Amino acid sequence: xxxxxxxxxxxxxxxxxxxxxxxxxxxxxxxxxxxxxxxxxxxxxxxxxxxxxxxxxxxxxxxxxxxxxxxxxxxxxxxxxxxxxxxxxxxxxxxxxxxxxxxxxxxxxxxxxxxxxxxxxxxxxxxxxxxxxxxxxxxxxxxxxxxxxxxxxxxxxxxxxxxxxxxxxxxxxxxxxxxxxxxxxxxx
Length: 188
Fold this sequence. Notes:
This protein has 5 helices and 9 strands. The chain has helices spanning 17-36, 41-59, 108-112, 145-159, 166-184, and strands at residues 5-12, 61-67, 72-79, 82-84, 88-89, 93-106, 118-130, 137-142, 163-165. Helix 1 packs antiparallel against helix 2.
């Protein structure tokens, strides 16, 4: 018997206003607690406890819960060990696709030196798609195409819906064009 309830954990995201507030709150309460420790141990311990709560908010753990038995799926945020998020109906989704997004990032040192050297990295996304009007649902972001492809195939098999590797198709087309150029000796 296959599992009826699955959690795909994405780990901490460190993004958004709550995460930023959590980071500064944790730092502030640790500093304030350290200042209070010699005068009032009980108050210092309360400050450290609040700092721990702020750390959980800063980490901003996220993931996806899939409940096959109840035909529902949700993206969740895990704050203070409590998962919350809106459930959506699995049967609203008719296809699983894999896409590639390329992101460019700049380090702080390149910004300071004004060299503006950027690094790019690829992220592969597995997405559930439905009819028009249904907002696509992100299953996960992966660093490797093989990992994303494996998840895409698993979801398609589990939900008995078609899958489409948009990155793989684009890669095949590019290889075909490159091969044609080599055969004809053309260069563009």
